[in-house]
Batch of 2 targets.
Target 1
Amino acid sequence: MAHASSDDYVLEIENVGISYFTRLGEIPAVPEFSLKLKRGESYGLVGESGCGKTTVAMAIMNYLGLNGGIVKGRIRFEGRDMATMSDEELRAVRGSRISMVYQEPMSALNPSLTIGSQIKEVLAVHEGVSDAEAAERSIEMLSDVNMPDPERVMTRYPHQISGGQQQRVVIAMAMLSNPSLLLLDEPTTALDVTVEATVIDLIVQLREKFNTTLLYISHNLGLIVKVCDRVGVMYSGSMVEEGTIRQVFKETRHPYTFGLFDCIPTLGADKHSRTLQPIPGQVSLPHERPSGCSFGPRCSYFSQGVCDVGETPLETVSDGHHVRCRRIDEIRHDPSTVESEVVGGHGDAVLDVVNMSKFYEINDVSLASLFKGQSRHYVKANERISFRAQRGRTIAIVGESGCGKSTFAKVLTGLETATDGEIMFENRNIAAIPVHKRNQDLIRAMQMVFQNPDGTLNPSHSVGHCIGRVIKKFGIRTDSKGIREHVGEMLDVVRLPKAFSTRKPRQLSGGQKQRIAVARAFAGNPSMVIADEPVSALDVSVQAAVINLLNDVQKRYNTTLLFISHDLSVVRFLSDEIVVMYLGEIMEAGSSERIFMPPYHPYTEALLSAVPIPDPDIIQKRIRLEGEMPSALDPPGGCRFASRCPRYIGRICNDEVPPDRDAGGGHTIKCHLPLDELSAVEPIFNTRDSAG
Amino acid sequence: MTDTTSDSAQAMPTNAEQPDRTGWARFFYSIGLLRESPAAMIGLSLVMLWVFIAVFADVITVWGPNEYDYSAISVPPLTVDGHWLGTDISGRDIWSRLAYGARATLTVAPAAILVCYFVGITMGMLAGYYGGWIDSILISRISDIILSFPLIILFIIIITVFGASALNIIVAVTLASSPGIGRIVRGLTLDLRNLEYVSAAQIRGERSLYIMAVELLPNARGPLIVDACLRMGYTVITIGILGFLGLGLPPPDPDWGGMVSESRTMATVPGMAYMPIIPSIAVSSLVIGFNLLADGLREISTRD
Amino acid sequence: MALFIGKRLLMMLVTMFVTTVIVFSLLEFTPGNVASKTLGPYATQAQKEILYNKLNLDDSLVVRYVRWISVLSGIIKDPVYDPDLKLGYKDSRGDQYFGNFGWSLKYRLPVNDIMWRRLGNTMILAGIAFAIIVPLSLVFGVLSGMREGSALDRSLSYTGITLTSIPEFASATFLLVIFVLMLGWLPGTSNMQNFEPWSWASQMVLPVIVLVLYDFGYVARMVRGSMVEVMTRPYIRTAILKGLPYRQVILKHALRNALIAPFTVILLQIPFLITGVVVTETVFSYPGFGKMLLEAALFGDTALIEAATLIAVFIAVTTQLVGDVGYMYINPRIRFI
C-alpha cells in the first residue's frame, strides 16, 4: 500500500530501535524512536552527549558500522525503506538525496586531496558530469556558501584554509547535488562563536534558497532556536518532548527539558539574581536503563509506582506538542530566583597587571626572509595588558581562540615569563619570575583549574594521591594521616564522597574529574585561582554543577577567581568583571552589567550579537564579522581589530593605537570612536513582543 | 589511558564499577585478559617453556653441554637412550646444548634489554621534556647518526674490535637499540608533556625529575611494555646472528646461532639435517613466542 | 625546499664525517696493530719497522686521521704503494686519486678492485628481493588493513609475525632441507661461478626467498597498520556517505593517506637489504658485499672494513635523504611552497 503521506514527509522514522553489539552483548543505544520530517521543514534534535542523537543520524544514512544495526522499526526516506535498499541504491541516495555535515570539518576532509577534487567527485559519481562542468558547478556552489576566492580554494588542501572555511566546503559538498534532506551533526561545535554565527546564517540562507529539509543535531538550545521550526528533545535514547520551538521553549512540559533550561546560564541573569540548578546524577547507560521512565532516577518529580512501571507513552498535550511523562498534568515548573548581596569589590588588589606584554620570537628560516634580511619575527601573544583584580572577586577574560587568553594564564603561573611590563601579585612583581624561581608561598597562592577533564588528572595516580600531593608539597599537612584527613575535607568541599580518594581518574565521570581538579586547586588555600575554560568540555547539566561549585568554593575561601572562557553566557552569570580580549590586546574591560550594555566596543558588540540565546523571544541585533582573525605574527599596527571592524573609520584605525576611553565606573573601551558615538547604539538584546 | 571524549558520560559508570586493582592484582588481571587471545596464550606458553628450560637446564639434562660422548657420534634424535634429541658430529648432546643455549640467550637478552631501556628512557625523556638544543643536538642528532649506521656492520665492528663476550654483546645491543627506544619515549613524552596534569605539576613547582618520573613515565608504560617484548624477540635474533657469524659467545659455550653455524653444511647431508634444524626451530620458536605475546599485549592495551 | 635539502645534505656530510672518525679511531687506535695488519701475519720485523717509519705511525691519532682522509680524497699519495717497501702492492689507478681506499690484505688487491664488484652482486640480490617484497607487502597490507579483523587480516597478521620471527639462518636451514635435501630442485650454494643463465637463476632462488620471507611480513604489517588507522578516519566516512563506490573510497581516499607513513619504512628496506644480507650471503656462499665485510672483519683487513663501512653508511644516509624529500612530496600537509 502506497502511503499517502509519502509526499508530505521526506523522512519517516517509525518505532526504530538501534543497537550495537559488543563484547558485553547487545547495547540498545536507541530503544525506540519515531520522527517524521515534512518536506522543507527544519527540525532540531537536541540532547546531551550519549543520548543517541548521532546514532539516529547514522541510522538514517544506514551507516552504523560493522557492530551496529537497526533491530526493529523502519526508516523510510521519500517513501522507500532504507534497510531494504541494495548497496547500489544506497550509494545513489547517499551524498545525493541525503547529505551530511559533520562536527569536525578538519577531519571530515581528506588531508591529501585538494578541495576541488573532493567536491567535484560528488558530481562525477552522482551525475556523471564532465570534469569541466563539475569544476564550474563546484565553484558556483562555493560562491553560494560565501567562500571568498572559490577558484583558488579549489586548488588548496584542507589544512591551508581556516576551520570556518573548511565547514563551508563540507556544506558546499553536501548541497552540491541539491539533496532533499540535509543532516547537520553539531556543525558549529568546533568553531568560534563569531564564525559559528556566520555558518548558522549560511545554513538558514541556503535552506531558504534550496528549500532543503534540515535535521539539525545539537546540544546547544540557542542554535536550535536560530535554525529550526520544530524541535525534539532526546534523553537516553528516546524522545522526551517534541513540538514547535515556541511550544518546547515557552510551554515546556517535560521535567528534563525544563531541567535543561534551569541549568543554562542566560544573559539576563547573574549569580546574584538566580542559581543554576544542575540535574542530579548522570545519564544511565543504555544497558542499565531503569524500567519505566529513563529520566526517573534524576527527576525531582519522580513518583514511585507511577514513573517506574511499564513503558511511558508519548502523549499529545496540544497540537504537535508531545511529551513523554506520566505526571504531566500534576507538575508545574517555576524557575527559581534568589537575591544575594554583591560581595567584594572593596578589597585590596590581589593582582595588578600593568602594561604586560608577551612576545614569542620566531626565527624565520625561509629563503624569502633571508633575501629581505629580516629573519626575526614576533608573535605578539599579549600586548599592553593592564587590569586589576580585587580580593574575592571573579574576573572573566573573554575572547575567541587565538586572542591570547591562555598565554596570559601561562605568564601569570610562571610557565612563561613576560617580555615587558609588570605583574604585581601579592605585592611582588612576578612578571619575570618563572615558576621554578618562585618561592613556595608564591606558588601556593596561585593555582589553576584546566579545561579538559580527561587531561587534568594523571591517569596513573589515585584521586587521593593527586590532592594529597598538593597538601604535602605546600606543607599544609605533613604526616600521612593528616594529609589523608585533609584530602577527605577537600572531597567534602567539592561534594564527593570520601571513598573517592582511592579511585583512579578512569573510574570518574567528566564532571567528577573537574570537581577533583577544583579540590586540587583549592587544597593549598590559594589567594587566586585561574580557571581556564573549566566547564567548556562538559554537558550543560554537569556544567551547572561545576559552575555552582566554583562559585561556592570561591566564596568560602574568599579567593580571587580569574575565569578564562569563550562562553559569554557563563561569563555573564559567574563574573563580577569582564575583560574582553582580541588578538592579544584588551579591547574592553568593566563590570559585568556594563559590558552587556552600550556603549560597546565594536568587537564586543559583534561577540554579543553572535551568542546563541535559547529564548525565541529575544532578538539580537545582527552584526557579523568579515574575514579571519589576522595572525598574531606581526599583527596590525594600529587597532588590532581594524581589519574586521564593522565601524572602521579610516586610516587612523590602521595607524594609531586607540585610546582607552573611560566610560565611567571602571569601564574602559579601546577605540578611536568617541564615547558618545559608541553609546548611541541600540542594545544588542531586545525582547520580542510576545503577544501570540 | 584511552581518550573518551564524546561518550564519556555514557562510558564512565561501567568503569566506576570496575574494582580498583593495584600492583600484582593488576598484573595478574592483565595476564588473565591475555586468555581472550589464543595467539597471545601460545606466545606466553612458548616463552614460559623456554624460561623453564633455561632455569632448570642442569636438572633436566643428563649430559653436560660440552661433554663428548664418543660412543654416540652423530646419532639422530630418539634413537639412543640419554640423547633424545641426538648428538652432533663431535658426540655432544644436542638437548643439553639447547638447554644451556637457552640459558645463555635468556640471560644476555633481558640484561641487554634492561640496559637499553635505562639508556633509551633517559635519552628520550630528556629530549622530549626539555626539547630545544638538548633534543635537537645532543640526543636526536646522535640517535640519527647511530640509526643510519647499518646494524650488522655496527655489531661486526664492535665485536671484532673489542672481542666476543656477553658483555660486548650487551654493549652492542645497547648502542644499536637505545636510540630507537629513545625515539619512542621522546614521542610519548612529547604527547604527554602538553597534557594538563603536567602543567598542573609545573604550576605547583614540581621539579623536572619528579615530573618525568612520577607524572610522565607511568603513563608511557603501556606502549613500552609492548615494545620491550618485541625487542626481546629481535635481541634473541641478534644474539643468534652473532653466534651464527662466529661473533657470539666464545666457544665452546653453547649458543643457538653457533650450533646452526657449526652444522650448517649438514643441512644438505641425508640423515644429518636434524643438527642445524633443531637449534633453528629453537630460536624461531622463542622469537615467535615473544612476538605473539607482544601482539596480544598490544591488542589488550589498545582495547581497554 | 632548497633550504631543506641543503640542510639535509649538510646533515649527511656530518654523519659521514662522524662515521669516518668513529671507524678510524676504533680500528686504528693502536699504531702497532696497523703495521702488522697492513703487512699481514708473515711480515718480518724489518719490514714492520720500515712501514712504521714510512707511515709515521708515531704521530697522534688526529694527524694519522687527517693523513688517511687525504689519501682517500687523493690529496697525497698512498704510502703503501711506495716501491721502497717492496710489498709488491700495485693499483692500476695509480697511487694518488680520489676514492683511494687502500689495499685489501685479505684479497691481496686494491680495495676498489674487490669492493665494487661485490657491491654489484649484492645489489642484484637485494634488488630482486626488493622488487618482490614491495608489491607483495603493499597488496597484502592494503587488503588486510581494509577490513580489520577479517579472515584474511587475521591470517596475514599471524603469518607476518611468524615469518619475521624466523631469523635468516633458520629459514635458510629449513629451505635447504626442503629444496635441496628432500626435493633436490635447487643448488645448495650460490657462489655464482657458473654464468649459464639457468644455473644463475637457480642459484638466486633460495637467497632471494630467504630475504623475502624475513622482510615481507614486517613491511606488510606496517602497511596494514597504516591502512587500518586510515580506515577509521572521519574522512573515509565522509567519502562513503558521499555515495562513492567502495573501490573509489579505497583507491582514491584511503590508499593515498595509508601509504604516507609506510613510505619511509619501505625505502629504508634498501639499505637494510644491501647491508643486512651478511647472514644470507654467508649461508649460501654468495660472493656479495656482506660476506666480504664479514670476512674482512674476521681477517682484520682494516682498509676494506673502513671502505665498506663508509659505503654502507653512505647508502643509508642517501636513502634517508631521498626518503625525507619523497615524504615531503607525497604528504601535502608538510609540503613546502
Target 2
Amino acid sequence: METRNVGPVLELNKAIPSFEESGLPPVPFSMRLMPGECAVVEARDASRATIFADLCSGLVPLNDGAVKFMGLDWTELHDREVNALRGRIGRITRRPSWTDFLGTHMGIMLQQLHHTTRDVNDVVAEASRLSEQFGLPGLPVLRPAMLSDADLLRASCVRAFMGRPHLLLLEDPLEASPADLEDAFLSAITTARDKGAGIIWLVRSNAVGQRYWQGVTSRWRLADDGLVAVRMG
Amino acid sequence: MSETNTNQREPGSDRDPILEAENHQQAQRAPLSLKVRILRRLAWLGRLTRHQLWFFLIMMGACWGVIFESFRAHSWRRTVRYEFGVTLNSVIGGGLIATLFAGTLTGVAAVSQTIYWLGFAGLAKMTGSILVNVVVREIAPILVGILLLGRNGMLSVTELGLLTTGGQIRSFQAQGLDPFLLLVMPRTLAFTVGGFTLGILFSFAALLTGYIISRISGVITNPVWTFFYDVVTAMSGADYIIIPLKFIVVGFVVGVGGCLTGLTATNEDNLRTLLPRGFSRGMLIVMAVSVLFSLDF
C-alpha cells in the first residue's frame, strides 16, 4: 500500500454520504486538510459530529464523490488496507469506546499494539508519559467502569495522541472537561501538528477553546446544506 | 381533507376512484411471461430460504473465515494472541473444576452403573466398548459442549452483544481493529482448544470415578491399568480420530455461534432477547454436531 506523504492528509471531494446509513444530509462535502493544519468544524449536533468523523475515517458509505486519506480513496482499498490506514488516525469520540473486559491501559494501547511492531515497553512508556501529561497519576489499569468521567476523558486524550497519528479527529474534549485539561490538550495538539498531523477539531460551539483559535487554519460549520466554510478573523 | 378530494367520491357510492384506477392500470399491463413468473417465484423462495437460514449461512462463512485467517501468520498480531490467551485461560482454567465435577458425577451415575449392570448380565467383556461408545463418544461431547456454552459461550454472547449495541464495535472499526480478527477468531480457537482439553479431562474423570466406585463396591477387582487397557483396546482406529474431532468441532462451533450471536445483535436487542437466543442456538449447535457425527460415522 503506497501512502502519500505530500499533499493533503485528508480530502473530501464532493463526497455525498448515504443518508440511509449515516443520517448526514446527502449533499456534497468538500474539504482539504494539509499536514500540520488544524480545521475546526462546528457541529451543534453531537451525533452528527461523530458521523462526520466516521465519514472522514471511511466508515460511511458514499453515494458519490470520494474521501481520500493520505492520497488513498477509502472505497478502493481492501479491508486490511483500510484497517491499517485507520490505525494512523487518532480519535476522541463521544461514542462509547471503552470495553470492560479490557483494562483501561489495554484500551489505550490497543491500537498501537495491534497496528505496530513497537516494543511493548516503548508503548507503555509513551502511554504513561501521556497519561501524566493529561493529568492522570499514571497509566490507568483499572476497568473503565471504575474511572470517573473526567479520568475517562483524559484516557481518551491519551489514546488519541498515542503513536504518531497522521490525522486526529477530536470530538471536543474540552466541552465538559476539567480546567487543567485544556493546557495539556492544546499542547498535545501543537506537538502533533509539528510532527505533521492534520487535525479536525469538532466543536459544538465557538466558545470552546477560543485560546487556540489563532492557531486554527480553517473553520467550517456542519449544517443541513453540508460543510460550509466560515470566514476567519 | 380538501374540498376537491371530497368531491371525487360521492357519499354512499361503492366506487373508489383510486382503487378503480389501480385496477385499470393492472388490467392494462401485459401478462407476465412464464420465465419471469418462474424467476420471481425462485427469487421469493431464495429470499425466504435466506431469511430462515441467514444465521446458518453467516456461521458457515465465519467458520471458513476463522480457519482461513488462523493459517495466516499476519493475523496473529499480539493483540490477537493476547485475546486468545485470555480466553483460553478463561475456558480451560475457569471451566476445569466444573468439568471435572461433571465428569465425576457422570462416573458415579453412568459409568459405575454400566459396569455393574454389564457384570450382572454377564457381559463384562463389553464394558470397554460400551463405555467408549456411550460415555466418551456420545455423552462427553454434549456435556462438555453445554458446559462451554454455559460458562464461556454465554459470556461471549453477552460481551459482544453489549459491545455491538453499545457502539464499541463501531469504535473498534474506527481504530482499524477488525472485530472478527480481534475477537471472533481468537475466541473461537480458544474454545476449540478448550473443547478438546476439557473433553479429554471429562472422559478421564468419568472413567476413573466409575472405576473407583465399582472397585469400592466390589463389582470389579481388576487393577486400574487393566480397566483403562480394556477401554483403550475397545477403541477402533476411527475412534482415535472421531472422538477428538468431536470435542474440537463442538468447541469450535460453540465459540463461533456465541461470538456471532453477539455480533449480529441489533439496536432492538437487550440481555432479555440476547441470552435466550444465544442459549437456544448454542444448544441446537451442540446437538446438531453430536447428531451429525453419529449419523456419518
